[in-house]
């Protein structure tokens, strides 16, 4: 029988997080202080909230498996058996092989070479709204920017980019049936492009993935399709919410926004603090492979474990004054993009897009202020942190 972990109120802590996903941090604080390993009946998983425990979980694929966290879902077992494993849901040694092969195509140079195009896209998006004196950071910039970048990277026609956005939103939402249909549609779409690139390679990522090999080992077609899905969804959601979270946080700290306008070289450190302060991906999913103990709790083999990155990044034992937004924080060893073998492969792209977006926004506009007549609404996801809309006035 599972160890009882009962909070001191009738309403569980994770139910409170579900009710107010924009402000989970007080609940995280209570979890860390009193229930660092807490079983959530709402999420059917153990919530792990302290930095050291979170790091230990995500660094130990032998005891806490990514692959088995998917197989543990009864309805997904047969689907998983017939499907390719993605980087997110693969354990070593296949994870190392997959990552090595993908790294051959998705190189640091590939990312850095995107900078001029990203700058052009940001300016184009702002040109549409600059004369209006207001901008919706999410819908006018943060949403379309990564979609356009990823679509062009993969070699997707411009007319299909809006479909990308719809698929991505469905995948991170709680709508299970719609999610399944979206995955099927995405696979079918990318399969067509893969077939075309086999016939005639182009200068795009899918062609590079098809040709990547190490000692005669290539990615399977199913693995290429799964990486395309991963890049689309994770790349879009991470960048979109990182940009939105950055502007939301800077609006709450106008003196820091002025400091950045005076010195744009502070932007990279600011982005790292945004990742810590409002982590775009709040929690992960693992499965215990054996009976084990963590934080005084017995976790049974097969139990789902959810390390909370957003809580770990505000752990008082790791960060001084963790509730403060401090762009000069040194050191800032957040784990907002994961850690170890599952460190986010698209983190460099998210950082680049966010840096350029902030540089252009803070250069083009003298002042940016959130329009407080519109209420902030959290995105439809229990593991992503971000807002659906962020209207701001912009002074040229």
**H/E series, N to C?**
HHEEHEHHHHHEHHHHHEEHHHEEEEHHEE
User: What is the typical, i.e. mean, pLDDT?
Assistant: 89
Residue share in β-strands: 5-15%
Which CATH architecture is right? Answer: Orthogonal Bundle
C-alpha Rg (nearest Å): 21 Å
Number of strands: 12
Q: In whole angstroms, how far apart are the ends?
A: 63 Å
Structural class, by secondary structure, is alpha+beta
Low-confidence stretches: 73-83
List the helices and strands and how they pair.
Blueprint: H1 13-19, H2 25-34, E1 37-40, E2 45-48, H3 51-58, E3 64-65, H4 66-71, H5 77-82, H6 94-105, H7 108-112, H8 115-127, E4 134-136, H9 137-142, H10 144-154, H11 161-171, H12 176-199, H13 205-211, E5 213-214, E6 217-218, H14 221-252, H15 254-262, H16 267-277, E7 286-288, E8 292-294, E9 297-299, E10 304-307, H17 309-312, H18 347-364, E11 367-370, E12 391-395
Parallel strand pairs: 2-10
Antiparallel strand pairs: 1-2, 3-7, 4-12, 5-6, 7-10, 8-9, 11-12
Helix pairs in contact: 1-2, 6-13, 8-10, 8-18, 10-11, 10-14, 11-12, 11-14, 12-14, 14-16, 14-18
